[in-house]
Amino acid sequence: MSGGGGGSPAAPSPALSGRGARIAGAAPGLLDEGFALYLADPFDRERNPEGVLNLGTSENTLCFDLIEERVSAAAAAAAYGYLIPAPYYGGINSKTWLYGELQPVHVPLFSEVRFWLFVYFCEVMFWLFGIRVRALILINPHNPLGDIYPAQLLKECLDFAHRYELHVIMDEIYMLSVYDDITFTSVLSLESLPDPERTHFMWGFSKDFGMCGIRVGVLHTTNHEIQKAVNQLAVFHSCPGPVQHVLSQFLKDRDWMDNVFFPTNKKRLKEAQKLLVDGLADIGVPVLKSSGGLYVWADFRKFLKSQTFEAELKLWQKLLDKKLLISPGKAFCCYEPGWFRLVFSNSVDKIYLCIKRLEEVLHTNDAEPVPNNASSLTKHSEQDHYLSLLLK
Ligand SMILES: Cc1ncc(COP(=O)(O)O)c(C=O)c1O
User: Fold this and answer.
1) CA distances from 233 to 16, 20, 95, 238, 361 (A)
2) Where are the domains of the chain?
3) pLDDT digits (tens, 9 = 90+) for 181-192
4) pLDDT digits (tens, 9 = 90+) for 237-289
5) Domain at 75-254: CATH architecture
6) Is the peptide bond before 328 cis (omega within 30 degrees of 0)?
7) In the predicted structure, residue 105 carries a pLDDT above the cut 80
């Protein structure tokens, strides 16, 4: 174990790392300055004839009419780290490394406390870790657990982060895919935030609107320095104007959203989730109770030859050989072998086929079923127990 992860410094430190500040503070080029002037006062033949006439930007407006018609017809540095409860969506590792050279500092969650997060766990990992933790990333609704953070837990996490001057990145990409009758609390809906300058929200169209291909996401932050830094990084990721136009038209129809899309989507998610959960129960696979997201977190421990990640991967390979692709817990940095994520947002026939193929593999599996503690999937709060789990 290494020494303390930081502690509460006496004087508040700046909200951005040195690297972030350099990116945010990069001097705009001459062209950027000129373009900013144009944006502030753009020429328009009717509405602003005295405005700045832009003959500086290299774009072709000659065939806008033809294109418009066509389109509308179709339509921190290496030493820094972030705390993240594990298991978690593995894509976060590669992206935070790629953009920020950041290291994850896992907050391991265990089935003994039904993978529940207690803020105390974050505190323990913060102090155990030597690398400089600068952020806490939370996924809500959680991927892969399908859990939803109650408002109280959310507030405790934000208070904890504030105490140690950590940024909080709330990934709420499944926020509208909640199918249980449970209250979902978005960080944006809280009346006040302990540290608004370090609290950031992310969402995208991929999941809630089934539009993975549209590649449009949202970052909401009131921190202007971060906005500036992200704008610098986003030059090659801008959202094309026609896509923005189509999506803003789409979002305008609140009536259709509220009365048609969301209720139907919720009903279909609930039905599909039940179908998969019931099918899994029939073949002896328990799942963690979930309320949001497009998947369930299923317990295959008793089908492993040994309680190891090698055995988990062997089972995964057997399923692949049977032409069934589900995701092993290892891919989510889970600390216990034997858990798999299964996506249910699919048609009835595919869910049945999934159960059939699973049954064929599991029942011909030569593994001696190992007893597991699936019965202990109940939430309890013996926080000190956490240390003994970590040290096991
Ligand atoms: C929690 C979470 N965040 C972000 C993403 C990224 O989504 P996309 O790249 O499709 O917008 C995913 C995709 O699976 C996810 O599960």
Assistant:
1) 15, 10, 13, 10, 46
2) 75-254, 256-391
3) 999 999 999 999
4) 889 999 999 999 999 999 999 999 999 999 999 999 999 999 999 999 999 99
5) 3-Layer(aba) Sandwich (3.40)
6) no
7) yes
> What is the b/e burial string over 311-343, where b = at least 16 CB atoms within 10 angstroms of the residue's CB?
bbebbbebbeeeebebbbbbbbbbbbbbbbbbb
Give the gyration radius of the chain's Cα atoms.
24
The residue whose CA has the least distance to atom 7 of ligand 1 is 206
CB-ligand 1 contact for 91 (6 Å cutoff): yes
Query: What confidence tens digit (pLDDT) does each residue in 60-87 have?
Result: 878 877 766 665 555 444 468 999 999 9
For the chain, give the mean pLDDT: 88
Report pLDDT for 392. 67
Residue 111 is given by DSSP the state G
Q: 217 CB under 6 A from ligand 1?
A: yes
Most informative mutation of 143, 174, 332, 343 for ligand 1 (most atoms within 8 A of CB): 143
Those residues whose C-beta lies under 8 Å from the C-beta of residue 196, and which sit 6 or more positions away, are: 222, 223
CATH of domain 256-391: 3.90.1150.10
Residue with tokens 């950027």: 32
